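Hey, sorry for the delay on this. The queue was backed up all week. Below are the sequences that define the complex (chains, strands and the ligand SMILES where applicable).
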Amino acid sequence: MATAWHLQKAGIEFQLLEMSPRLGGRMRTASYPDSGTAEIGLEEFWEGNPLLEIMRELKLPLEKSASSFSSVVLDGRIHAFTQETNTDFLRSVLSGDELRSFQAWDAEAGRIQERLRKPPLPADLLSLKDQSFEAWVTQKKFGLSKKAQQFIRQQSEPEYGTSWTRISALDGIAEWRIFQGKGMQSFHLVRGNQTLAEAMAEHLGRSRILLNTQVTNIQSRSDHVEVIATNTATSEQKIFRAEHVVSTIPLFRLNEIQFSPELSTRRQEAIQTQGWGSYFTAHVFVDRAAERFWNALGPETLPILTGSSIGVVYEGYSPQTAGYRLLNLLITGDFGEAFNARTISFDAVGGQIRAGFEKLWPGFSKHIQRMTFYRYHPRAIAGWPVGRSRFDTLSELMRTPEGRLYFAGDFTEGTHSDDAARSALRVVGQIVESRKKR
Ligand SMILES: Cc1cc2nc3c(=O)[nH]c(=O)nc-3n(C[C@H](O)[C@H](O)[C@H](O)COP(=O)(O)OP(=O)(O)OC[C@H]3O[C@@H](n4cnc5c(N)ncnc54)[C@H](O)[C@@H]3O)c2cc1C
């Protein structure tokens, strides 16, 4: 949708083909009886996300959070983020010596992030892709205490949705930009993030968007591209011809597309060797008496990073008149993978979630009224394993057009919606350039 937005700005005609009956992709908001809402997918838009510009242009109301760190459970103890700033919160978690080594490590991550913004990358930096983020953080030279290491792990893992042992140090450092220094501000749309998709669709013009239209084949010709798509409701097939085609199909679905001619071997290698993280979402309805558990920690202490089977505990929106409070669990990593795998029953998933709450707050689970689960494909979010990186030549290749075919979407630049939005700006720039040349 961001690609369509920028094409429209550039005065280029487009047609958007969307497989599902709704818009927004992994940006989804659930609404419940009595007007409760909670995010199923994308939770926060970070400062610097180009989508924020679009929201401002559309005059969509935004709410912001204090800063990027969240309350965290370390060694069974909750450290509530009740302070104004990341630094004040850190002071409450780490001792003086621990904080000094953490700040030196954080400054080093900041220096590397600065250099990452100026490609091409020197070899010393690129070699950081060959070790895990964990191996880089726990090096003796940084002198980080076990607690500080755990803190870095707990804060960062929900961002890439997998263990810090499974992503390359270079990409772990890139992800840490959210937390580095004073940390980034995050934003959320007041009536739910899904409202962005609806407002964009109105602005783009609904006639330019075809829902229930699943792309199955992309055939590149010398002077145009043909896209074959099937209507998922009627199974009717249609052929679209275009001067350029931008695929924003997510990484995990690219293997479902028949490209003709076949994608180059190197491009296929880029796709096959990329890693991933897992996300599973649970919306938990609790009676209003349960608020005392999180309110006892101080005002606005959610979200909490539990590092357990309940993942990150966010608060959904539940109006005063609703007979429930709504919690939104973002469960990542091994628990996310197991819950998504469909090899255990939903009752078993619910049991593990109840157990996770009991461990955090004994007596809490009796307040649970019901839960609704949302599964994602096991490769819900793109990542880069040890040996790969968003900064390597294979990733650069994904950002290079193959004739008149362009690849965009979060996985071409990073892991999040800001990366998807940046990829949109890139492909539209590439298309404008190519048209100028002709
Ligand atoms: C649970 C969860 C929480 C997240 N939290 C955050 C967060 O807090 N902040 C953040 O910035 N990001 C977050 N993300 C990541 C963010 O949602 C994605 O980075 C972003 O949505 C990527 O946008 P995209 O357009 O690349 O892909 P998508 O949003 O996945 O959109 C791709 C679209 O392509 C369609 N499609 C797929 N195959 C076909 C086909 N063959 N034909 C036609 N259409 C097709 C899909 O139906 C979908 O609508 C989260 C993701 C998840 C799953």
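Residues 17-20, 25-27, 41-45, 214-215, 248-250, 253, 279, 281, 330, 376, 380-381, 409-410, 416-418, 420 surround flavin-adenine dinucleotide (CB under 6 Å).

I'll add it to the shared folder too.

S.
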